Recover the amino acids of this structure.
């Protein structure tokens, strides 16, 4: 306790001394405030464009795709400023973009064949006075030629067709990385097999843990169904009525499932 009081007292003295030195060593005449030199700043009226995904990710995006599955990625054209003129930009399959990336980074990613890629529309339309286009959906589908554990890339490039919009090469190029993962298993062990149910609370257990239990011989999931305790029966002593209360963990799970269903639909 004595050591603590000694350190606290000396620290306070040092702080007061430092404050006194700072206030006494500085005055207004020693600080000269001049306007910033803006001679090197050049303003521009040029509207510059760049590509992003739906989360405003630039240059590239990585998605997970199941073996022999497919999916889609939404891309957008964005601009640094508004313009009084509308612009139209096309999106094309560009394997040379991936070739340059591999050479620059020392990688050897393989491009997904152009035949496995489709565009809902080959062009972005940027309206006058807008800084973002509508989405352009890019669909893809894997075949037996793509293997689990590998990563394939869809390389694309944007090209201005009309309008005042300008795009630098690095902003016009986009890479979509597809990580191919194994298809999920199932729990179909046959019509005569016993059905295994798991009933659990979610307060301190993650329901996804059930996916870790599989049968050695078939690889099928052990559990056929998961039952979550979702409602707590609450008696309101004031009114004498009974209510069902859903806890926060169940709410989170249900909302996550709802978001997933909406994204797939």
């Amino acid at each position: 306790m004595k050591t603590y009081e000694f350190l606290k007292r000396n620290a306070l003295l040092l702080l007061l001394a430092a404050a006194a030195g700072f206030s006494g060593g500085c005055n207004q005449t020693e600080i000269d405030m001049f306007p910033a030199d803006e001679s090197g700043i050049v303003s521009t009226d040029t509207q510059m464009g760049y590509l992003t995904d739906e989360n405003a990710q630039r240059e590239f995006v990585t998605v997970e795709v199941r073996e022999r599955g497919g999916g889609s990625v939404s891309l957008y054209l964005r601009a640094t400023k508004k313009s009084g003129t509308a612009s139209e930009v096309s999106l094309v399959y560009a394997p040379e973009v991936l070739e340059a990336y591999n050479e620059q980074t020392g990688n050897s990613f393989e491009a997904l064949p152009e035949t496995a890629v489709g565009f809902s529309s080959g062009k972005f339309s940027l309206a006058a006075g807008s800084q973002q286009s509508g989405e352009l959906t890019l669909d893809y589908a894997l075949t037996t030629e793509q293997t689990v554990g590998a990563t394939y890339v869809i390389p694309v490039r944007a090209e201005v067709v009309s309008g005042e919009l300008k795009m630098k090469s690095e902003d016009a190029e986009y890479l979509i990385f597809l990580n191919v993962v194994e298809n999920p298993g199932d729990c179909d062990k046959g019509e005569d097999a016993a059905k295994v149910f798991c009933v659990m609370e979610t307060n301190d257990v993650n329901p996804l843990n059930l996916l870790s239990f599989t049968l050695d011989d078939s690889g099928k999931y052990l559990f056929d169904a998961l039952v979550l305790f979702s409602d707590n029966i609450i008696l309101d002593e004031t009114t004498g009525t009974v209510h069902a209360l859903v806890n926060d963990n169940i709410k989170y799970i249900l909302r996550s499932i709802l978001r997933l269903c909406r994204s797939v639909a």
Notes: The chain has a mean pLDDT of 83. Residues 2-25 form the longest helix (24 residues).
